[in-house]
Design goal:
Layout: H1 2-14, E1 19-20, H2 23-34, E2 44-47, E3 57-60, E4 66-69, H3 71-76, H4 82-96, H5 103-116, H6 135-147, H7 173-178
Parallel strand pairs: 2-4
Antiparallel strand pairs: 1-2, 3-4
Length: about 180
């Protein structure tokens, strides 16, 4: 299908057939954030490819692995940018729990919208319904919680992070326990 063609072109152009996550990388992400909610390890594949403007992106393939296209540095060492790695793994979870066959089209439209008007990574003060956020907003909540503060600060900033990485006392922690870890996107 079309996804298979894309994967073939991607690997031909980049010369990168990718690699599976190591057990240590997979276990680390599950321990740090996902608490066992990641899709099976053999369904996730890293590539050194990056998308438009040098940005990582995650792509579902038809009857194949989900590609986490993270660039050469993260491909070699996911700990070189742990926050972005976590962000991309949230997308892998969204894909695994999605019944939306047009996930890729929605993701591409989201990035196009971000290029034109921005704001797709915004999410506001804790208390919102996580399922009302877009794909990028959901992933950003998790990666900002992982970091302990917003990647994209605002002034004034309505988001009420505690400033402590992976803080279970953060008002955003509930989105991990009530949504991400149970596949409720």
């Amino acid at each position: 299908g079309p996804a298979g063609i894309f994967v073939r072109v991607l690997t031909d152009v980049t010369g990168d057939s990718g690699r599976y996550l190591t057990a240590a990388e997979y276990d680390w992400a599950n321990d740090m954030v996902f608490a066992g909610a990641l899709p099976p390890i053999d369904t996730l594949r890293l590539t050194a490819y990056k998308g438009a403007s040098g940005r990582p992106f995650t792509f579902p393939t038809f009857n194949g692995p989900t590609l986490l296209n993270v660039g050469s540095a993260m491909f070699a060492n996911v700990h070189s940018d742990e926050t972005t790695f976590i962000h991309e793994l949230v997308h892998a979870c969204q894909i695994a729990h999605s019944t939306n066959v047009v996930f890729t089209a929605v993701a591409m439209a989201t990035q196009a919208k971000n290029s034109i008007v921005g704001g797709v990574y915004d999410y506001g003060a804790a208390g919102f319904d996580y399922t009302d956020l877009g794909l990028e907003g959901q992933a950003q909540v998790v990666s900002d919680w992982f970091r302990g503060s917003p990647e994209f600060p605002q002034s004034p900033d309505p988001r009420n992070h505690t400033g402590h990485a992976r803080d279970p006392q953060s008002p955003y922690y509930r989105y991990l326990t009530d949504n991400v870890r149970v596949g409720h996107f």
